[in-house]
# Entry
Amino acid sequence: MPNKLANLTFTQEDMGKTFTYKVTEVIPSDDKKLPGVTYNTESAVYTVEITPIDDGDGSMHLVTKVTKGDVEINPSSLGGRDVYTLPFINEYKAAETTFTPDAAAVGLSKVLTGRDWIDSDEFEFTLEAVTQGAPMPANDKTTVTKADLKDGKAAFGFGEIKFDKAGDYTYRVTETNAGKTINGITYTPLPRDLHCACDRSWQ
# Structure
């Protein structure tokens, strides 16, 4: 941004006086704020003190002091001049969104063929993150029984997953005992991968 203090003019009457300026970010009204952007508040206020000094030879120079709170800001040198850099940092963070991988969203369900379900039938599934650092639900395991059966399918899910960063995420659903045959039941051998482009869609 342009240096708003560059065009200040001081006269002989100003000698020895100290002029104090506050540099802050203008916080827009709520309807003008950028979504997800954090603005600098009172904690990001710079105080600029400028004192004109008479050199006694027909010239003057300025003594400048810049502080942020109790901390004095030191200048850098550019072309023999002191240059002060006053950073204002705005942070962007997308609002948290949630998703529940279940039958309604991605069609997770258990089907048993060859015989009817019995009360003792119990099938367990595990959800794991293929993408390193991907968020997980509170429980990564779930179980279905005959009580979950509806229209020949036992639907299941893993609870809510919360996302606070956009990105592509992959999860894998695996049935316990995958590929094994126990008591005449052959368990699903292959896992199912769920691909998420966060803020766009699930597949």
